[in-house]
Amino acid sequence: MGADIREAQRARMPHTFARKIAQVTLKSRLLSIERTEDQLGESLFYKGGEQEIMHNLLSDIEYLVTMDEIRRVHRLAGDMYYEIMARSLSPELGFRRRTPRPHQDPVNAMLSLGYAMLFGNTIVSVIGAYLDPDHGFMREGGERSLVVDLIDPLKTSMVDTAVFSIARAGLIDGRYRVSTKRCHLNEEVIDALIAALRASINQEIIDDNVLSLSQAVMGEGSLSLAYQFPGLYKDRVPPNPDDRTPDHSDFFAISVPGTR
């Protein structure tokens, strides 16, 4: 069963799909930064054009013609996003950017746990749709590469919001330890994070994105990827940094047990 859709998936040129993933992921990250700025009442961008660079990257994606260019912009925008979001947290947490395992700080450890949960929810949907989880578009080859592609646009609203909220609320203060090998979170932090993630990881949105992808590879429509809850962010990215109209009433707040 599903041989036809997997065959169509492998026959599709990756460029259009990868470009859409890069665009939607960057939109979600820009809006996450804006939301955090509004919550904190301060800018997270350094002076010198960081914000303009990220908006220019978003505009440029539409005109990129090679996969290497798309991947380079996707990677650069991701690196910038984590470094900018790190400024919203206490320096004592030791989070500066996204790092590979084993993690030496609690924020990276929580992000990895959250992404693993999101990955699990997504692969169930991918397999249920008879797609090949090992044939991605941004990441054309490799184990579970399609699943990794599909979770990129959802990370900010379904995982990052919960993790950064817990970190800023102080729940992890004194509730982790860093050994010579990795950071260990205690059970209180893990339980609070899992509770928040269960509230924020939305299977319906994941299923809708997988359905859209399956229809697109079969030539039944263009790929459309949701990246937010209804009302979580304004569904637009400002054309320039000075044209912003934030609306605090639209923001979704995750309730994290034990936070203040």
How many strands appear in the DSSP assignment?
2
The N- and C-terminal alpha carbons lie at a distance of 50 Å
Main pleated sheet? 2 strands, antiparallel
Strand percent estimate: under 5%
What is the approximate shape? Answer: globular
- Name the poorly predicted regions: 230-260
- Residue-averaged pLDDT: 88
Structural features, described:
- It is a single chain.
- This protein has helices at 3-11, 14-40, 50-61, 67-86, 106-128, 145-151, 155-169, 187-200, 203-217; strands spanning 176-178, 183-185.
- Helix 2 packs parallel to helix 7 and helix 7 packs antiparallel against helix 8 (187-200).
- The protein is globular.
- A hairpin with a 4-residue loop joins strand 1 and strand 2.
- By secondary structure, it is mainly α.
Defining key terms:
9 helices; mainly alpha; 260 residues; 55% helix; two-stranded antiparallel ribbon; globular
List the helices and strands and how they pair.
Elements (H helix, E strand, L loop, with lengths): L2 H9 L2 H27 L9 H12 L5 H20 L19 H23 L16 H7 L3 H15 L6 E3 L4 E3 L1 H14 L2 H15 L43
Antiparallel strand pairs: 1-2
Helix pairs in contact: 2-3, 2-4, 2-7, 3-4, 5-6, 5-7, 5-9, 7-8
Concise summary:
The protein is mainly α and 260 residues long.
